[in-house]
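Problem 12. The chain below contains 226 residues. Write out its predicted structure in token notation.
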Amino acid sequence: MTLPEEDSDTSRALGGLDSDSSSTRLRAALAVGTAPDPRSVGALVERCAVEPEFLVRDMLTWALTRHSPSTTVPRLIAELRSERPQARSQALHTLSKIGDRRAWPAITRALLADPDDEVARSAWRAAVVLVPEGQEEGLAEILSTQLGRGGHETRRSLSRALVALGEVAVPALRAATEATDAEPGAREHAIATERLYRDPEAGFTFAIEEAKRIMVLGRPEQEGGG
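Solution.
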């Protein structure tokens, strides 16, 4: 039996996703996204889990956003249970790009505290996009438990997520700065994040340096105006 022309085109594009050539895989993802077919979703999601090239992963995500959320979201949610960190990270990243809040219940505390930094960072970004109105403060409290985690990029990602939540994040940040049993790194990170919220143009590196100064000298109101 001869396949319809559109089926043949889809099959060829999907076959290209497994090519050894990254440029071929990039073109294949572009082709699948240009002509969305719900039968392609599974293959796109599976490729996201193993694709080594950032540009190709980005194109795979774009291709998935071109499909109906009713098809993509359930498949991506299922991927959040994968043992592969990249599978979880890419699924979260794609869910944040789709922006369908029906995915919110799948953004669990476990994902927000995932031991893999890339997964956690993707979960923070997705959570900020998908959190329902009225639940932002609770999310900020959960995110604040991750203050002081990881290196510079991980901490910057968390600060950006908390700043994006707006004023509702300030009480959680203030509590973290005033907690007597908090790790110094967590307090420093909380101070820097609050500074970044007050002055987004300052930049994270500057905010961290300011936080270090405050950690040594005390909070501004305790410095006697000096």
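Discussion. Residues 1-5, 220-226 have pLDDT under 50 and may be disordered. Students who got a different answer should revisit the alignment rule from Section 12.3.
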